[in-house]
Design goal:
The protein is α/β, with parallel strands linked by helices and about 1000 residues long. The chain is built from 43 helices and 14 strands.
Length: about 1000
């Protein structure tokens, strides 16, 4: 709740202008408090309207008398005098007073369906609307527009309410341009295919009309896809779900899947709908495949130049597809065996120079034409064979090119060697590329140099290089090279397991590739977007991206292996082992190595659905992954995968491999691969100890993994999840250790851990004054693990104590009334209530002063930190929740977990994050990544934060917790007692309290 809630009554009374109404409707869709008040208002107004409208006996043949005209003060005043009911919901939320309707019109529902074109491109499931087909006519700009807000007939709604037709009311609001109200009524319906199809429609429309950041757009589309996939699993021929799924896929740019979904609608032979669906499917499919054919034609035309001296020079194609044609142009010039063959390419050089600016290609052609072709021609022929794939860029041929003096040929061969994972002299590649006058080649070698830095573990240097090169590339408008830089950045961020930043470049590259008609890069970015979505647990979108990439290149065996091995991992993560095995078998049809995702899936499936050939397949995949050498971190990860697989056949051999993995991982503690190996290895060892009933060993391993020494000897809860395996350990108040091990988990763990601790183990903790909770991902940071009547906290180990601070003045830093960026359109938060007692330690940062840099600087010496501002989750900005501050000079406004983790809090402060959703944890399988964890890493002694939205009054709640802690109460006890007293004092505003978590 925030100050916007104070405007609910003005909204209900219709006292807002159109702009205010629009802003409040956005707030209404996000605020549970206002939604409850709004629904109550609707019910009251419908009851009031019914009471004020006399019933008429149809046999009398009389029309019902109209109510008297509104007196000053409007309907609200009239209702107060007539029935004591205070309500008029504007439109209902829009001040819409409508003439009464005749009974026949209401009963027939004809008022819902207008003549002419339909209001929405999507399909609603309400039969009275969907059974009447009408064409959809987009606006002149071609964009889909939301329906304007129109009159909602109140008497008609009253009739619907009287017969309990909430679906009809929801549809009326939806068609009249009030989606938040429609959603509120739909959510009151029992679960059904029709309800979920309409909820998906609302998510689609919100994504189209929201105007928010691109990740919000993607999140709403993911929500729509999940709902529609659920409908279609239960009812595969559901017409509205098939139609709306096609629209969602089209919004994501997945046009071939959208066409397939429309084709399924066409098969249903519905009057009007099937014809439109068939037309839409044909248009989408033809436009997409035509784009692919033209790109392939351009690519083939440059290959023809290598093999046919009389092949036409693709001048027209160079204008439409300058990127791929320029790439082929380099190879054609290098492969030319005579002066004449080189000079015939001069017009193509001129056309490309005109497209990119300058004359660099024309000068290069002239220089090559002057070479001694008696010496160059044999080398040019060998180069052509490299390009065509009949001669590998390695061994003697590379030595001949190196010693030939034909540096352009050697540069091209080095680029091919590096791209094909052959040994390559990258230093020479970089030197030759930088020495050229060609910006294209200079940008290319920056990518290769960044790969070297990445392999050497200097990822920060690679990141800086690529970002600077991308900025240069965009200024030079070399789109094809920019795409390679976007790809390199997305790859780098995925390797560093930073999907939020990977998303930025994958999404940008995906859009830029489509604009530039670069078909192959469209494929690349589709698969990168799938990886990002999988990392963020958006599994439905991830599968959609993968399947679209396969539909576009079904003949490519490497594509099929990659796509199906990734789908196998997705299905395994969604607890669909049979589907995972089927996808893995399809991935093996091309007889290619499975890659890292396939190897990981195979290793996981060894526990439940093994196959006789798995060991050989895994050995081949691991050998391919090790080809060319790997870092200690990557080798540790591969050993952990191998060890988990071997464990099912030989426990001793599997444990030996995992212990080797853990030893290697310690050599590269900052490597993401090493951190994954560390987490995956311990997960397997802990689960194995649990399977054997070795509770002490399992607890010892957890303490060792979490760097928690010593492990508390009493009042302890420890939880470890490894896919289907759940291990729960409890030490009671006397120190007795009990445990529970299960392999019955059938679905992913969501945002709540309620029920994870068996009731018989929960009883063992009832006598504890405080419970230390040790957890591993994905449990760490979830709510509901223990009931509120227990005092407990997540215990975070770091192996070292916070630095002792001797002397110095205590400093209570409070960040409040932040001037957030206007572009975020966040409502202003209410001012904090002044402290009840004088606080000489208190230092406040307000308004525009509360920037990230200033806050981080002030926190370093603070002994207490309170942050009262908006919390925000943006998958394109941070992988965990962040808090919104005032913009810095560079425009940055977010206090993210990454920024906090790089800070050092010298006075081990207590941190109170009074911001919505500040405890939200990224869904990473190998580490707990959140704002509270970042503060602990930076040196905080304890952090309180909520995983959900909180009201303005939460500031007072956090203050009470802080006062109790300052008085000497243990933080977990202070939190428990403050919860109890707050519930007693504010029973109507207590749902969020259970979501306030403590980390110590």
């Amino acid at each position: 709740m925030n100050s916007a809630c104070n405007d609910l009554q003005r909204f209900l009374d219709g006292q807002m202008n159109a702009g205010e109404q629009g802003r409040f409707r956005e707030h209404l869709g996000r605020c549970l408090h206002c939604e409850a008040g709004f629904l109550e208002g609707i019910q009251l107004e419908l009851l009031a309207h019914k009471a004020l409208t006399p019933e008429v006996n149809p046999s009398e043949g009389l029309s019902p008398p109209r109510p008297p005209p509104p007196e000053p003060g409007g309907w609200k005043s009239l209702l107060r005098r007539r029935g004591g009911l205070v309500l008029l919901v504007a439109g209902l939320a829009l001040s819409l007073l409508v003439p009464s309707l005749d009974h026949a019109g209401v009963d027939s529902m004809s008022w819902l369906v207008k003549e002419g074109s339909r209001v929405l491109e999507a399909r609603v499931t309400y039969p009275a609307v969907d059974s009447h087909y009408r064409p959809f006519v987009p606006n002149r700009g071609g964009a889909v527009s939301a329906p304007g807000v129109e009159t909602v007939p109140i008497q008609a709604l009253s009739k619907l309410e009287a017969r309990g037709d909430l679906h009809g009311i929801a549809t009326a609001y939806l068609l009249r341009g009030a989606p938040r109200q429609a959603e509120a009524f739909l959510k009151r319906l029992p679960p059904s295919a029709d309800r979920d199809s309409d909820l998906a429609l609302l998510a689609l429309e919100d994504a189209r009309q929201g105007g928010g950041p691109v990740d919000t757009h993607s999140a709403r589309l993911e929500e729509a896809l999940v709902l529609l996939d659920g409908v279609l699993r239960a009812a595969p021929r559901h017409p509205q779900a098939l139609w709306n799924r096609a629209l969602v896929l089209g919004e994501l740019g997945l046009s071939l899947q959208a066409a397939d979904s429309f084709s399924e609608v066409a098969k249903l032979e519905e009057a009007g709908w099937s014809a439109e669906a068939e037309t839409r499917a044909r248009t989408l499919r033809e436009a997409t495949l035509l784009r692919g054919r033209k790109w392939k034609e351009a690519f083939a035309s440059t290959r023809d130049l290598l093999t046919d001296p009389a092949a036409p020079v693709p001048l027209e194609l160079a204008r439409e597809h300058p990127g791929i044609v320029r790439l082929g142009f380099y190879d054609a010039v290098r492969a030319a065996t005579t002066r004449a063959e080189v000079l015939r390419l001069q017009p193509l050089a001129r056309a490309l120079d005109e497209r990119y600016g300058g004359q660099v290609l024309q000068r290069w052609v002239s220089q090559v034409a002057e070479r001694d072709f008696a010496r160059r021609a044999p080398l040019a022929r060998e180069y052509a064979r490299m390009v065509l794939g009949t001669l590998p860029p390695s061994g003697e041929v590379m030595a001949r090119l190196r010693d030939s003096g034909e540096e352009d040929l050697y540069l091209g061969a080095l680029v091919r060697a590096a791209a094909g994972r052959h040994p390559a002299d990258v230093a020479t590649l970089v030197r030759l590329g930088r020495a050229s006058e060609d910006p294209w080649m200079q940008l290319l070698v920056e990518v290769e140099q960044a790969k070297v830095e990445q392999r050497e573990g200097r990822s920060w240097a690679a990141e800086t290089r690529l970002l600077e090169s991308l900025e240069t590339c965009l200024k030079q408008r070399m789109v094809y090279r920019c795409l390679s830089l976007e790809r390199a950045l997305a790859d780098l961020y995925l390797e560093l397991h930073r999907p939020a930043e990977a998303f930025q470049h994958a999404w940008s590259g995906w859009g830029r590739a489509r604009e530039a008609l670069e078909w192959q890069y469209e494929q690349v970015f589709l698969q990168l977007l799938a990886d990002v979505a999988r990392y963020q647990h958006s599994f439905t979108s991830a599968r959609a991206y993968l399947e679209e990439s396969l539909l576009r290149m079904p003949e490519d065996c490497a594509q099929r292996t990659h796509v199906h091995s990734n789908i196998a991992l997705l299905e395994w993560q969604r607890f669909r082992p049979k589907a995972a095995r089927e996808s893995l078998e399809r991935a093996l049809e091309c007889e290619r190595p499975l890659g890292l995702t396939g190897a990981l899936t195979l290793s996981e499936m060894a526990r439940s659905i093994p196959s006789g050939n798995d060991a050989q397949v895994l050995r081949r995949a691991l050998a391919d992954l090790r080809r060319g050498g790997v870092s200690p971190g990557r080798e540790a990860l591969l050993l952990s995968i191998e060890g988990q697989f071997v464990m099912e056949a030989s426990r001793d051999a599997g444990q030996s491999l995992i212990h080797r993995s853990l030893a290697l991982a310690e050599q590269e503690p900052d490597s993401v691969d090493a951190r994954k190996a560390h987490a995956f290895g311990y997960a397997t060892l802990i689960s194995e100890a649990g399977r054997e009933g070795a509770w002490d060993e399992a607890l010892r391993l957890m303490g060792q993994e979490l760097l928690l020494e010593p492990v508390p000897m009493r009042c302890l809860l420890a939880v470890s999840l490894q896919h289907e395996r759940t291990l729960v350990l409890v030490r009671d108040a006397k120190g007795a250790l009990k445990g529970s091990y299960s392999t019955e988990r059938k679905e992913p763990l969501r945002d709540d851990a309620s029920g994870l601790v068996p009731a018989e183990l929960l009883k063992e903790l009832v006598g504890c004054t405080h419970v230390d909770v040790l957890t591993r991902p994905p449990v760490h940071g979830l709510t509901g693990l223990l009931p509120d009547f227990l005092a407990w906290s997540y215990r975070v180990g770091r192996g070292v104590q916070p630095p002792a601070v001797v002397g110095g003045r205590s400093n209570h830093l409070v960040i409040t009334e932040v001037s957030s960026p206007p572009s975020l359109r966040l409502p202003k938060l209410g001012a904090l209530t002044p402290p009840r007692v004088p606080d000489p330690w208190r230092v406040e940062l307000r308004g525009a002063e509360a920037t990230p840099s200033r806050v981080l600087s002030e926190m370093t010496e603070a002994s207490e930190v309170e942050i009262h501002t908006h919390g925000l989750y943006s998958s394109s900005m941070s992988d965990a929740s962040m808090v919104v501050l005032a913009p810095d000079s560079d425009g940055s406004f977010a206090l993210t977990a990454d920024k906090v983790r790089r800070t050092r809090l010298s006075r081990a402060p207590l941190v109170l994050l009074a911001a919505c959703g500040a405890a939200r944890t990224a869904p990473f399988p190998h580490e707990s990544f959140s704002l509270p964890m970042a503060f602990i890493s930076a040196g905080a002694s304890a952090v309180l934060a909520s995983s959900v939205e909180i009201p303005d009054t939460a500031g007072a709640f956090f203050e009470k917790v802080r006062e109790r802690i300052r008085a000497g109460t243990r933080p977990s006890v202070a939190l428990r007692d403050s919860r109890a007293s707050w519930r007693e004092a504010h029973p109507e505003d207590a749902r969020w309290l259970s979501h306030v978590l403590l980390f110590e």
